[in-house]
TrEMBL record:
Pfam families: NAC, UBA_HYPK. Residues 52-75 are annotated as: Disordered. Residues 1-34 form the NAC-A/B domain. Residues 61-72 have a biased composition (Acidic residues). It comes from the Eukaryota. This is NAC-A/B domain-containing protein. May promote appropriate targeting of ribosome-nascent polypeptide complexes. GO terms for cellular component: nascent polypeptide-associated complex. PROSITE patterns: NAC_AB.
Length: 112
């Protein structure tokens, strides 16, 4: 524990090494500050800042504009494959159809 006076008024006795300090003393607990800093260091980042939208190349934009037959494939599965593999919607649908709807296999196929 440490006592801290942020704006002290200090006076020294001319006849001895005695000091008089006026001000508001506050208790500063260094161990709790270190614990707080350590906790913030190991804090899990926000998931939305970690996952980024896939960047599209000019060739991928052409695939994006085409209408893709999404029958038999869940829209959330398509979005997941697009996000994880960083590919266009058309490529994600084709990979899911090739993998018979298996998300993991589709992602592995696109990232290999």
């Amino acid at each position: 524990i440490l006592f801290v006076i942020s704006k002290p008024d200090t006076f020294r006795s001319p006849t001895s090494d005695t000091y008089i300090i006026f001000g508001e003393a506050k208790i500063e607990d260094l161990s709790s500050q270190l614990q707080t800093q350590a906790a913030q260091q190991f804090r899990v980042p926000d998931i939305s800042s970690v996952i980024t939208k896939p960047e599209m190349s000019p060739g991928a934009e052409a695939d994006e504009e085409e209408d893709v037959d999404e029958t038999g494939v869940e829209p959330r599965d398509i979005d997941l494959v697009m996000t994880q593999a960083g590919v266009s919607r058309g490529k994600a649908v084709n990979a899911l159809k090739t993998a018979n709807g298996d998300i993991v296999t589709a992602i592995m196929e696109l990232t290999a």
